[in-house]
């Protein structure tokens, strides 16, 4: 479905209703083949991230806490379907008898798994980690509905609803000037993601436009997210789960007839955009028409990026710039003790998000969010993968010696949003410098083949080859999957292989 064009003034008055009508009427036949194909590879990447993250310490800690506080329900959690699952948290070791819970807490745990190791997707213009919001919410609600007597949901429904979410979240973000929300200190994806979850769940439930508007209004009044979570808290891993849960909750309320805020995006007093746009420093403070601009013609999914490195997206240009220096000057960087200083110049959003001064010790969360730390890891290990952030490697003297020599600065002269420059000075007075316009994953984006290779690489050794191959085939042929519970069960049954 392509949205009929409206004048800008008309769009400003009814963008919420226009979006709801589009969500309601969109069919897979309206979506170009290449967009549908790309969506399947993005979904596969999301499931791969969940497999990597399911049994990391902070994921297990979250799962244990939620299993203990929630009554038993009808939904399994990915990686936790077996009775007496052993949880090896840093707090204690517990044999959990209840590993089934309700749809809303399930969505939080599964989202935490996808976000567990900074490997998941992100939107390059309006930062939001879509898979960690959409896949947990959609598979939780379909599992819940199935347990209550609904017929099976097929793969086509999952694919279509996920694409609805892929389109909605970034559009909300573009209304608020995208990455500028990070500069202001908001965890942008959590702010943008409530509407994405509500729209996607509304679509899979088949809600009519008035109910979708109610769902959006209920979801958006819950939106929030503080970026200070990045400095070491476990909750950084969980915040997108709040959006998944709250959007799901909103859509189920709307399905029951509960009335939400009408015209939630364009309402001038207390509306979503007017309120989050306050203090933006932009003129205008927000852009209402971005919500439906070229809806059905320009696909925001095409700006969703997949990460090759296990760290926050703003660190990727730092890593790639350091890697370029390593390739050009291998002899000079042979002895890192000769390094006197490292200067990393970057744009304002990257500086605010990743240019903060890191202090020893750091948690894995903080380390993955720091450009200085990521640069040091690349210099020492020549890669930034999950294993570099194991707890016993976080406090290495070699890393912290380089972090102490590193200064991150905002350089307005770097016009590109992703552009960074790294300059390294040596004890003999020599300097080497390199500028990279954008990291791999942004320009060029990872191809579908590279996403598949990433899925295979990072899940190898975590699950058996047969299960991994089954997940891969089911996702990449999703339109022909008759019952998505098969896929859900495969993920719920994932158990870590013995070390």
UniProtKB/TrEMBL annotation:
Gene3D superfamilies: 2-methylcitrate dehydratase PrpD (3.30.1330.120)
Organism: Penicillium cinerascens
Residue ranges annotated for the MmgE/PrpD N-terminal domain, each copy included: 17-278
PANTHER family, sorted: 2-METHYLCITRATE DEHYDRATASE, 2-METHYLCITRATE DEHYDRATASE-RELATED
Superkingdom classification of source: Eukaryota
Family from the record: Belongs to the PrpD family.
Protein name per UniProt: Uncharacterized protein
Single Gene Ontology MF annotation: lyase activity
InterPro entries attached to this UniProt entry: MmgE/PrpD_sf, MmgE/PrpD_sf_1, MmgE/PrpD_sf_2, MmgE_PrpD, MmgE_PrpD_C, MmgE_PrpD_N
UniProt domain MmgE/PrpD C-terminal: residue ranges: 309-477
């Amino acid at each position: 479905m392509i949205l009929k064009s409206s004048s800008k003034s008309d769009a400003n008055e009814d963008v919420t209703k226009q979006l709801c009508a589009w969500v309601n009427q969109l069919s897979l036949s309206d979506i170009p083949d290449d967009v549908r194909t790309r969506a399947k590879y993005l979904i596969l990447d999301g499931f791969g991230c969940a497999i990597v993250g399911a049994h990391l310490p902070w994921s297990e800690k979250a799962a244990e806490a939620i299993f203990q506080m929630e009554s038993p329900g009808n939904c399994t959690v990915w990686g936790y379907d077996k009775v007496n699952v052993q949880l090896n948290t840093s707090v204690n070791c517990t044999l959990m008898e209840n590993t089934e819970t309700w749809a809303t807490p399930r969505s939080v745990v599964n989202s935490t798994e996808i976000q567990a190791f900074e490997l998941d997707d992100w939107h390059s213009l309006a930062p939001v980690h879509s898979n960690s919001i959409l896949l947990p919410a959609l598979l939780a609600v379909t599992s819940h509905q199935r347990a209550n007597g609904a017929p099976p949901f097929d793969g086509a429904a999952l694919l279509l609803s996920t694409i609805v979410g892929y389109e909605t979240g970034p559009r909300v973000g573009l209304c608020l000037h995208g990455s500028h929300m990070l500069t202001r200190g908001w965890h942008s994806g959590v702010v943008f993601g409530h509407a994405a979850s509500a729209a996607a769940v509304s679509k899979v439930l088949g809600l009519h436009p008035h109910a979708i508007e109610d769902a959006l209004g209920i979801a958006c009044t819950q939106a929030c997210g503080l970026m200070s979570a990045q400095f070491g808290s476990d909750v950084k891993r969980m915040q997108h789960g709040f959006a998944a849960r709250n959007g799901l909750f909103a859509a189920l309320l709307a399905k029951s007839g509960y009335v939400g805020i009408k015209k939630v995006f364009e309402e001038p007093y207390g509306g979503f955009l007017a309120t989050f746009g306050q203090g933006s420093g932009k003129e205008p403070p927000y852009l209402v028409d971005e919500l439906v601009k070229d809806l059905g013609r320009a696909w925001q999914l095409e700006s969703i990026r997949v990460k090759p490195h296990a760290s926050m997206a703003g660190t990727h240009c730092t890593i790639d710039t350091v890697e370029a220096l390593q390739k050009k000057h291998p002899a000079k960087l042979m002895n890192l003790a000769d390094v006197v200083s490292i200067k990393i110049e970057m744009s304002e959003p990257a500086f605010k998000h990743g240019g903060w001064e890191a202090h020893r010790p750091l948690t894995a969360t903080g380390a993955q969010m720091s450009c200085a730390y990521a640069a040091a890891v690349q210099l020492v290990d020549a890669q930034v993968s999950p294993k570099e952030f194991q707890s016993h490697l976080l406090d290495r003297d070699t890393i912290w010696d380089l972090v102490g020599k590193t200064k991150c600065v905002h350089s307005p002269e770097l016009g590109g949003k992703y552009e960074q420059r790294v300059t390294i000075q040596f004890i003999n007075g020599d300097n080497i410098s390199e500028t990279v316009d954008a990291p791999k994953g942004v320009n060029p984006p990872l191809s579908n083949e590279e996403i598949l290779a990433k899925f295979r690489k990072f899940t190898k050794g975590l699950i058996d080859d047969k299960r991994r191959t089954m997940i891969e085939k089911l996702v990449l042929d999703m339109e022909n999957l008759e019952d998505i519970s098969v896929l859900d069960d495969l993920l719920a049954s994932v158990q870590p292989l013995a070390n």
